[in-house]
Amino acid sequence: MKRSRLLPAVTWIYVVWSLLPVLIAIRFAFNEGRSRTTGQGFSLRWFWTDPTLSVRNDPTLASALEHSLVLAGLSMVIAVPLGTALALGLQRWRGRGSGVSNVLMLLPLVTPELVFAVGLFLLFTSAFGFIGLGTTAQVIGHVTFSLSWVVLIVRGRLVMIGRDVEEAAADLGAPPWHVLRRVLLPLLGPALAASLLTVFALSIDDFVVAQYMASGADTTTVPMRIYASARAAPTPALNALVTIMLVLSLAALALAWVLGRGRPVEPRA
Amino acid sequence: MNEPSGLSRRGLLASAGAVLAGASLTGCENTTTPVATAEGTGGPGIMGDETAGGPVDAAGIPLARRDYPVTLPRIGDPVKAGAPEKGGELQVYNYADYLNPEVIQAFGKQEGVSVRVTTFQSLDEAFTKLSTGRFQFDVVFTAPDHLPRLVGRRLVQPLNFDLIPNLVKETWPELHSPFYDVGPRYSVPYTLYTTGIGWRNDQIGALDPNALGWEAFWESQALRGKVAVLDDAREALGMALMRRGVSNLNTEDEAALKRASDDLVELNDITRVKVAINGYETLPAGRMTMNHVWSGDMLNAVISYLPEGTSGDVLSYWYQKVGGPVFNDCMCVGVEARKPVMAHRFLNFLLRPDVALTNFTGYVGYQPPITKIDAAALFEQQVLPANLRNCVVTREDYANGNAYLALTAEGRRRWDQAWGAFRNG
Amino acid sequence: MRRWALFAAPGMAWLAAFFLVAFYAVVAVGFGNVTDVYDPVPHWNPLEWNVGYMLQALEDIAPGGRTWPVFVRTLLYVAIAVALSLAIGYPVAYYVSRYAHGRMKALLLILLAAPFWISYLMRMFAWTNLLADGGYAATVLNALSLDALLLDGEDWLGGQHVAVVMGLVYGYVPYLILPLYASLDRIDERLIEAARDLGASSAGAFRRVVLPLSRAGTLGGIVLIALPMFGDYYTPDLMSGSPRTAMLGNTINNSVQGGPDKALGAALTLLLSAFLLVFMLYYLRELRRENAL
Hints:
Chain A has helices at about 1-30, 45-50, 60-90, 100-110, 115-125, 135-160, 165-170, 175-205, 210-215, 220-230, 235-260. By secondary structure, chain A is mainly alpha-helical. Chain A has a single domain (about 65-260), classed as MetI-like fold (Orthogonal Bundle), CATH 1.10.3720.
């Protein structure tokens, strides 16, 4: 059959095409020379040893990395609890307004990021001027577009868990607060881990909202740094920066995977 | 400009200052007329008399020209001389890469204060963010054509020149009371520049910007994809105006601006032109071959951005000797400065000859208007590459030069529309 | 139960404040005015709306207006990029869902999902390394004479339409493949076998069974990648940087972040949202169906 030869070929070519450029970019991070287009030996110069240009010693690179991580951390800490509560509420609440709320919760997912970023920018430079631009605005932006994802993930899990366990606990006389804390939240563990991971990934990846909410050099993130430098004449230190970023993302992924596997309770899954 | 001499008007202006300040603040918003553009063309003029004051900007402040000096209205009083504020951070608002970190450190050490620099990409962005009123910068870097808007919106404060003795002691006499800020009241000069063309000798081939001048951009088919004009409405359109021989860089003539915009659009086809302000990085790296640049960028390219193994000789610079843009940037103190005295000391520090020199040759590449710094000698001593000798601004250049200056509200709208027609594709 | 509404309250308040009000800020600025120094003055009260900027934006984007060429270019870029993404993505998704099994399938799925873990800007940056003069990709492509075929000149990053469209395809195709895969994977193998048993050729079975059944996933995937492409400005900036290849996102970005035309930029943002409304509603419906909300 002809297709069976052609299709795997297309698939593998695609996979190589989609990943090879990034691997090559990582390779250049270890260049000894300054070129980002040809391999020139191996060194850690751009990560560590170059006295002015390495990620360690160039304050603009190091601070971008730090700021990206700070934003991701704050976004996770705010978006996951907020989204989990929202998911619980929306899943169980069937009253007036719940339909509208469901739609509102999904809107950030379907709105182009630029439209959302322009809106927040105009808001923070006018009516919400007391918040203004800067780190706070960036975190608010990231939480807002992450929230819907957390809700979707947690609700998916809630549907899977069903209400049996909860009702059983209530029948045995557990007060509602206990049911929530001792029964529901532990069952939600994998979903919470997945949510944390997703928010981390969304925040780290985001460029548009971070750029619109930024107020200056100290609010520059890694993607913003890439945008600014890639158009000028970056050194392989920028490659080194993206390499570190990628390693951190993969580490987060691995961590979540390990934690997710370690979960003892897997009802009905 | 065929206005009556500035002198008599200066007295009038000073007395009108208070009125103007009031007018500018109440008259800032005009939302009554449902039109697509800002109202306020011409504004109230001096005390309501258009003919008495010449054209005014959106805030009602007269438009300064080289032959028409303007005293900016006084808003508030300068800070009293005294001991500098202790502790905390001095907040500085500036372009990126426009201040030598060593200089910042030295000031911090001398005064026992930590200096925090926040950066902006363009003066428009800086104005937008400053006018949200959330930033309390002590020192604000800007340019003379933006000064009136900063004053009109009460975003900077009058200076106490007793705290900045270096202005008179060390800077060029023509800048002691510049035409854009007679007195001066709000600003001290920072650096000088001309606007011109920078290129790579090793890549440009037969094209000769020295012979062609601005026309070189329209002759650069062979360099397609490697040519950029400045990402700056005034500079890029002004360049296209000069190409057509227009000498008034502050013209508000719609037809001339339309033609300038069309000429720039033509560059898309001729050379797939890019729009960028980072020639100081892309030219030395060889990613671009010919850029519309500021003179300081070329020196900055050699000082900070030459890759190993590339010599500064590969770079050249041309500027229009007569009637081309030659001007200076300036520094102010923010209206809500927490450390106004310290801010004055910072301004004075940057005008100290040794500090200014370190800042110039050690980092930014833009030359300060300091009398004791003999830029020509720096080329003799090979502190700077001889082939970029013409990146120095002489006092003669400054006297003959042209400048982009504040426009009327309507004029500004026309420039921005013409720019948008090119910039937005 | 009331109690559950209380759980939802903080999140809903957050979304109302930072999503709904934010969107309304675009409306208020787009239908607002500017000060004499071009600061936008939002008109929050609909009774005070000023239609001037909206009319200006409409005039600009209509045929013959100054934004019209950008609009047409954006439509073309997105249409071509989506078509190319489908041409690449569909066979890949089809193969992985139908023919890959066991460990191979798991490996392929991980590789297909990998780009999600690499920042978009990082992936674009990787291409700027490859397409720069002397870069690996530029060297290979030029050796194959593809520059002569596809480019005006030979500089891949010097304001070329092809480079921008390629950047868009590269950037967004992973987001198309996963929903496509999901919908193809759901198709019951027995349906195809039944079609073959009834005499359909392999191609016929594909056309009569697989294509119709994967239609929803395909449309969903297209919408999923077309929406962000319409708001993209960083891909043209990184892959070209010339006004020659500017997209609508660049126009909006330049107006809102750069220049003094914020009100006009807001009006244009509203027009773009209105234009994309059909896509957004379709996507919303799909999301509700998928998640049974």
